[in-house]
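Possible regression after last week's pipeline update?

I re-ran a chain I had predicted before the update to compare outputs. Posting the input and the new output here so someone can diff against the archived version. Not blocking, just want to make sure nothing changed silently.
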Amino acid sequence: MKSPAVLNLPALPVPPPVPREQVCVALVPGVVVRCKATWPRGHGRGGWESQLLETGFLGIFLCPLWTLSRLPRHTPPSSIVIWGFRWLIFRIMLGAGLIKIRGDRCWRDLTCMDYHYETQPVPNPIAYFMHRSPWWFHQFETLVNHFIELVVPFFLFLGRRMCIVHGLLQILFQVLLIISGNLSFLNWLTMVPSIACFDDISLGFLFSSRRGGVKERVAQMQLEGAAGEQLPLRYGCYVRKVVNISFGLLIAYLSIPVVLNLLNSRQVMNTSFNPLRIVNTYGAFGSITKERTEVILQGTSSLDPNDPAAVWEEYDFKCKPGDLKRRPCFITPYHYRLDWLMWFAAFQTYEQNEWIIHLAGKLLAQEEETLSLMATNPFAGRAPPRWIRGEHFKYKYSQPGGKHASEGRWWIRKRIGPYFPPVNLQGLKKFYEDRNWPYPV
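New output (post-update):
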């Protein structure tokens, strides 16, 4: 088990300009996906690493390998690769829609949005106000979600205009999700394959009309093509055609179990059926939690953790709810993995999330790398805490304009009970040894 300090990774996929660098960027997520088995189970439940890997893999075949030209005459983007991106966005959205309809009943009752804004992993300030929308608006939101995820994907196969409409709706949908929640880089990444829905004509407005520019050169090439002027194909062009056809056949073959999974009433989400992880099945929020619970880590310098006079001080995380008066944060497209993991842990037990005890040991030792993942250290400049415990709370939004909000509180909370009992560093020694974890010093 790696230290929790490795969990908080920035993850902003930026397409590089140089093809060989693009290959490297596409391969890095594969290493991440392979290594994630050493991280706490649950951090990758969104399937984002697999989606990043598949998107990067498609990107390898999008650009010509041996030229940096913005408009390579001999190697235009392959329609097979373009359809590979379209097939990706189709599976992402349809998989998300089907897992909802087959999952939590609230998606069929149109009531899921009554809870989503309050119980999503890491809410933002806009979600605080969206939660108080009237019931009919939440039902409308749910219907729009079903339309976007279950109906719109089929627009891809209904001709050029509908394909463009599909791209516009999907990008707009992702923008709305970015505004109303902190789903890290997921929504930004999902926009990437949607760009493949637009052709040269629809994207022409993005380029300058100056003389000798890209638009003029494209128009000239189109005129030459219409006049029957064809450039002789080079040897490399034939190689590229063979590679693209082979690539298309590979994608088609690897898609068979994915399609069967989509048709299966026992559909699984965010799963790979091949070791390459380049054609995957996706899905999100198949079930919605109806109440928000949080694990609050507290430390004390008291010799006796059971002493009623012991003063317990709270650790705040960078973004997840804790301090009742702290405004919900905006972090997208950044991803605080540790905060996300704490959301999963809150509706499970610490026995199912042993990493949280590992984290407590690191905090007891005042490890710098681990403390860098926290927003506050109540023992900064002092001796480390002697004990740390986890307390379980139920959190609810305060009412905008109400009593608690007027006192500056964004949240109201009620204690449920202990999440894990007080632990000290010496008492954790055997726990660490049994799991071959490095003992914090």
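Follow-up from reviewer: compared with the archived run. The longest strand covers residues 411-423. Marking as no regression found.
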